[in-house]
Amino acid sequence: MYIKVYIIRAKLSTEEILDLMSLVDQYNEHRYQAQPELVLCPHPEEADVVITNVHMRQRLERHLEWVLASEKAVVKPAWLRDCAAERTARPCGSYFALKDLRGSTERHCPLAPSEGEFLSISPRSEPVERVNYSSRYACLRYCPLECPNQRLAQQLGVIQRSRELDSNETSALSYERAISVIKAFPDPITSARLDEVSKLPWIGGKMLSKIKEYIVEGDISESQAIAESEQFRTLSLFTQVYGIGPPTARRLYNEHNLRTIADLDTHFSDDRAESPSSPSTAPVLTAKRALSLREDLNEKIPREEVEQFHSIVVEELQRLLPGCSSTIVGGYRRGKPQSTDIDIVVTHPRIGSSRTHGLGDAIVKLLYERGIVTHVLHVSSFHAPDALRTSQWDDLEKVMTLLDRSRRLASFISVFPARTDLLLTHRTGSKMFERDLRLWAKERQAIRTVGFKFDSSGIFRRRDSKQYKPNSEREIFDILGLEYIGPTLRNADV
Questions:
Q1: What positions does the domain DNA-directed DNA polymerase X occupy (predicted)?
Q2: How far apart are CA 381 and CA 323, in angstroms?
Q3: What residues pair up with 74 in beta bridges, in sequence order?
Q4: Are 264 and 241 a contacting pair, CB within 8 Å?
Q5: From the DSSP assignment, how many helices (H) and strands (E) are in the chain?
C-alpha cells in the first residue's frame, strides 16, 4: 500500500519544506514492516493526504479548491512528524488542519481505524498445499529445465506453437497445460505408465492418443507434418522479426503472399528510421532496422554475456543513483544456459518519489550516451496502484532497448521497493507457472475459503480488498498457501 502525500508550500519556509520532504524518506527507511510507504506527489488531485500549515479556509482556497479539499485528508505538518517519529502511519483525524475539514479528513484518511492497515502475515492456521506432480496447477509441480520426457514435450510444443500462430488461443492453452504436466512427470513415460498418465490433469483423450503415438512410433505425425509445412515455417520465420506478431505474420503470408526474408525486405523497403529528437535520445527501432538485425536478435545469449552486461548496468546505476539494486530475471533466473533477451528489474529505496520517477528512462539515456544502447523499442510508465484494476503489471516503468555491438535486446523494469518480490516472481516465469500462480490465487476461495487477487500492485483478499505485503518470494508462496518452489524448478514451458 502507498499513501500519496502533497505538501502545500504556503506558510512554510524553504527549510521547513525540505525538512518535511526528508521526513518522508526517514519514515520510509525506518517504518515498521506492516506499514505503508509514503510517496510525495506533484499535484493535490493525486494525493491521499494533503499537508498544510494554513488554518483558514479563505487562505487555503488560494492553493486548493474547497471541493477538492473536502475530498482529501487535510492535515497539519505534525501528522508527518509523528509518523516519522513513531515509524507508523498515523490516522489523520486528530491532525485536521481546519475545523471545517475535520469530518472529511477523518472520512478520507487512508488509515481510518475502521479501514485497518496491511494485513499481517500471521501464523498459518491451514496446512500449506504441498508440491505434487499430479497437481492441477503448474505452481504446485516441480518443473526442471530438462525433464525425462523433454523430446515428447518438444513435439507437443510444435503443435502448440502452430495453434498460437493461427491465433487459436484455446487449443494453444490446452497444449501448454498438457506440456506443463509432462514437464513435471518424474519418470520416462512408457506404455506401462499410460494408465497413470491418463489420470493426470489436462491429459484428455486426444492428448493421450498423441502420447501413445509417440511411445509406439517415436514421433507424433501431426507435429512432424506441421514442422515441415511451408506455412508454419514461414510464419515462424516472420515472427522472429521484432514487432511482427502472429496476426501480422498471417496477413503478410495470406494477403501479400510473402514467403521469405527477402520478400519482407522488399515489403518494408520504404520504412525510414527515425532520427533522435536530441543528441541524448535513443531513436526508435523501425521494422526495416529490426529486419536487418533479425539474425543477431535471435541469436541466443550465453549466461556469461548476460552477467557481463549486468555488471556494466550495475556500475552505471551506482553512478546515476547510488543505492540502486538490480536482478536478472526471465529464463536466466530459471537456470537456462542461454537467453533470448536480457530482463533486469531495478529498484531503489526511494523509487516512486520525484527524484526517482523516470528512472528507467534515465538509465537508458545514460547507456545511450555511453554507446551501450542504440535504440529504444518500447516504453511504459508508472500508473497509480489500484487494487481493483483489471490490467496486470501496469504500475511499473519499463524500457526495452537494443544494445550496441552484440545486438541484444535488454529490458529495464523499474519497480517500487514493496513490489520487487512480486515482480521478481512474475518476471521469472515461466509463463505457465506464473499463469497458474494467479489462477491458484483466484480459485483458492473455492478450495480454502479465502481467495486473492494477485498482481504487481500486491496481494489482495478478494472479499474485502485487504492487502498483504510480502517481503520475499517465500512469503508470497506462504500467503497463497503454497509450498515454495525455487526459480530453477519453475520451467513449466517447453
A1: 147-491
A2: 21
A3: 50
A4: yes
A5: 20, 14
- Residues 260, 234: Cα–Cα separation, whole Å: 7
- Single out the residue of 428, 352, 367 nearest to residue 401, CA to CA: 367
Contact 416, 353 (CB under 8 A): no
pLDDT tens, residue order, the chain (494 aa) = 689 999 999 999 988 898 898 899 888 888 877 788 899 988 899 899 999 999 999 999 999 999 999 999 999 999 999 888 888 888 888 899 999 998 889 888 887 443 344 454 444 445 689 999 999 999 999 999 999 999 999 999 999 999 999 999 999 999 999 999 999 999 999 999 999 999 999 999 999 999 999 999 999 999 999 999 999 999 999 999 988 999 999 999 999 999 999 999 899 886 544 444 454 556 666 777 778 888 888 889 999 999 999 999 899 888 888 888 899 999 999 999 999 899 999 888 766 544 445 677 788 888 888 888 887 776 654 333 333 333 333 446 677 787 765 667 888 888 877 788 899 999 999 999 999 999 998 887 555 656 788 876 678 887 777 778 788 899 899 889 899 999 999 999 99
CB atoms within 10 A of CB 312: 13
Closest CA to 174 of 215, 208, 124, 126: 208
Class of domain 2-108: alpha beta
Q: At which residue does the C-alpha cell 510517496 appear?
A: 39
Annotated catalytic residues are 210
The topology (CATH level 3) of 148-230 is DNA polymerase; domain 1 (1.10.150)
Prior bond of 22 cis (ω within 30°) = no
Each domain of the chain, given as residue ranges in start order, spans 2-108, 148-230
Are residues 457 and 426 in contact, defined by beta-carbon separation less than 8 angstroms?
A: no
Cα 383 to chain center, whole Å? 13
| Set of cell numbers at residue 443 | 480459485
Question: What's the Cα-to-Cα distance from 308 to each of 243, 303, 330, 406, 428, rounded to whole Å?
Answer: 27, 9, 16, 12, 19
Residue 71: which of 118, 106, 117 has the closest Cα?
A: 106
Q: Quote the cell numbers at residue 155.
A: 513435439
Amino acid at 236: S
